[in-house]
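Chapter summary example: a protein plus nicotinamide-adenine-dinucleotide.
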Amino acid sequence: MKVLVTGGLGFIGSNFIRHLLKARPSWKIVNLDKQTYAGNPANLKGLKVETIKKDICDPKAVDRAMKGCDFVVHFAAETHVDRSILDAGAFLKTNILGTQVLLDAALSQQVRRFVHVSTDEVYGSIPKGYSKEGDHLEPNSPYAASKAAADLLVRSYFVTHKAPVLVTRASNNYGPYQYPEKALPLMITNFMEDKPFPQYGDGKQVRDWLHVADHARGILLVLEKGILGEVYNIGGSYTCQNRELIQRVLRLMKQPNDLVARVEDRKGHDRRYALDCSKLKRLGFRHAYGFDEGLRQTIAWYQDNEAWWRPLKVAGGYRSYLQKAYKRK
Ligand code: NAD
Ligand code: TYD
């Protein structure tokens, strides 16, 4: 089998490739990645993968990369909500138009299965209960709206063109190789530097935490066993408020419980996400990671791999774009 992975230099794409190399060693993997600020060749260091450095919005490059592929697993996206609030342009281009270019190529190249990797954020904030795959979409950030638009485009290609597509919607991922602008790696690396974590608002927002290795296993299961045209939620094994997560990480890292800076809330901040994953479980999915073990291992990974994250924090000036947006309260 030959599989095209898009966005394989990012956090989840690189973890998926690592999983695939072990789980399906005979498969040939081609990685198409533009290498934006979030795409990091160090994420695939030492792995036998062909990487093509091109934009998914470039139809010729996409056609070439997809030639002879049986499967496509599409991760490439602009992914950080805070960036989408400040400047939505790249989100609409990559997440919507890029997906359209990939879908057209998948039709002309006659790929057998195409997994579009999406997010629980398309359902919007739910005060109680669990989002099911058939629920209506109510995205609140430009990031979530661009992902919801892409999900609907994928659906339209199934109905109109009988494209062999599947959609996965996952909750907040955590684990190794996550760019340190996202909450958990930012928290861990700040605490390693004795710096506070900037908590947005009251910290009572609820997120559902999924280990990236479990996400990779869920995606492979859907790729191989999912029903074409269907959507599958992939939720985590632990749900908590941000302020509980902060206290938990502080305890594990033996830092004082006041190493927190309360800053203004994110605009349009979603209060709660939660997924019903019974459909995926019916395909046979079980989590391999409990949150306790996963979180300890993740903290240890950032502690052992300072050489990986330090240059991203220093060189990127990665949060300077946010400093004006999030003032201390
Ligand atoms: P990431 O930001 O770490 O990586 C994104 C990758 O896509 C980078 O390697 C980047 O270079 C590449 N990319 C961006 N624009 C591109 C373009 N125009 N052409 C080619 N490559 C491009 O993202 P991630 O956290 O690994 O997320 C991967 C996917 O999973 C995304 O589609 C995201 O919406 C989805 N998802 C993420 C989470 C999460 O918690 N991180 C949860 C659910 C779903
Ligand atoms: P994030 O990792 O950006 O994921 P998402 O917004 O996609 O859920 O943020 C996770 C949660 O942590 C979210 O409720 C926002 C909050 N957060 C902070 O309180 N401070 C921060 O500096 C960041 C990046 C996030």
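Key point: The first strand starts at residue 2 and ends at 6.
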